[in-house]
Design goal:
Blueprint (H helix, E strand, L loop, with lengths): L42 E11 L2 E10 L4 E8 L4 H15 L8 E3 L9 H10 L2 E2 L1
Parallel strand pairs: 1-4, 4-5
Antiparallel strand pairs: 1-2, 2-3
């Protein structure tokens, strides 16, 4: 669809959930678009999206373990502030309690929430490799 410049039908206006923060440095891409893992807690991928409801737009943040293909942390919110994605990360860390002895790579896009100081500091505290 991208090659043919096609998009799915959409009602209402397009919601942009991840405005890139070009002023902040972008972490190195340790994944190189290879989303595979050979063991649990080797690669986590994080993102968020929106869902239209009768009450309006709701945002869902999630952290997925690539090996298990399972969401290990998630949060739903009516806003896109940083604490919403940090809460999803906290849930994943609490649920899986990854060991600092094994290298866990955390991959996310370059949205302002994902490169925020609070989010980056929490990744460093947990000993996760970024990007």
């Amino acid at each position: 669809m991208r090659k043919l410049d096609l998009e799915g039908a959409r009602r209402g206006k397009k919601v942009r959930t991840t405005p890139p923060d070009m002023a902040r440095p972008c972490p190195l891409d340790l994944v190189n678009r290879q989303f595979t893992a050979h063991r649990p807690d080797q690669l986590w991928v994080a993102d968020f999206t929106y869902v239209s409801t009768w009450q309006g737009q709701m945002f869902v943040a999630f952290v997925t373990d690539v090996y298990a293909r399972r969401i290990v942390g998630w949060r739903v919110s009516s806003h896109m502030r940083t604490d919403f994605v940090v809460d999803a990360l906290e849930q994943a860390l609490h649920a899986r309690q990854p060991s600092n002895a094994t290298e866990l790579i955390h991959h996310s896009d370059r949205g302002s929430q994902d490169v925020s100081i609070r989010y980056t500091e929490r990744l460093e505290e947990a000993g996760l490799c970024r990007r």
